[in-house]
Amino acid sequence: MAHYSIGDKVRLRKTHPCGSTDWEITRTGMDFRIRCLGCGHQVLIPRVKFEKAVKAVIARVGEPEPPPK
């Protein structure tokens, strides 16, 4: 089980209707609130569903962000 913090940026397996796959975690616990980095839409999803949907962690809080490609 991975550890996620508020402010972490993750990439999900499925794309959002706006075309983005990158999200920022804004709440943790039994449910996760995530905000789309493409359009700003917020979604509240259960922890189990969130952990299955995460493909990769893009950036963690407190670590420098990688340069854009």
From TrEMBL:
Domain of life: Bacteria
Protein name listed in UniProt: Conserved domain protein
PANTHER family named among the record's database cross-references: DUF951 DOMAIN-CONTAINING PROTEIN (PTHR38455:SF1), HYPOTHETICAL CYTOSOLIC PROTEIN (PTHR38455)
InterPro entries, per database record: DUF951
